[in-house]
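To illustrate the input format used throughout this study, we show a single complete record. The first block contains the structure-token representation of the backbone; no residue identities are included at this stage. The design step must infer an amino acid for every position from geometry alone.
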């Protein structure tokens, strides 16, 4: 099932969750208003297993702006 994610161009898209080495399926775009200008977007990569917990972590703090499939991420976002 994941073979299509293992050769995403030359990018390495590994989940951002601590200790997780699984290929990411989603990009979580977030912004911390105390640290970043409003236009700035930080990106966390999340695999299927961690997408919920990572997005929950960000949305509880009001940081989460968007979540997109990894295939829709651009270089500027990473
Ligand atoms: Zn993960």
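Output of the design step:
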């Amino acid at each position: 099932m994941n073979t299509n994610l293992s050769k995403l161009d030359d990018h390495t898209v590994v989940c951002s969750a601590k200790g997780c080495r699984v290929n990411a399926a989603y990009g979580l775009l977030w912004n911390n208003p105390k640290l970043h200008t409003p236009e700035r977007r930080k990106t966390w990569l999340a695999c299927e297993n961690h997408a919920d917990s990572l997005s929950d972590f960000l949305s509880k703090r009001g940081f989460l702006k968007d979540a997109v499939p990894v295939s829709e991420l651009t270089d500027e976002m990473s």
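Structural context for interpreting the output: The longest helix spans residues 51-60. The helical segments are 51-60.
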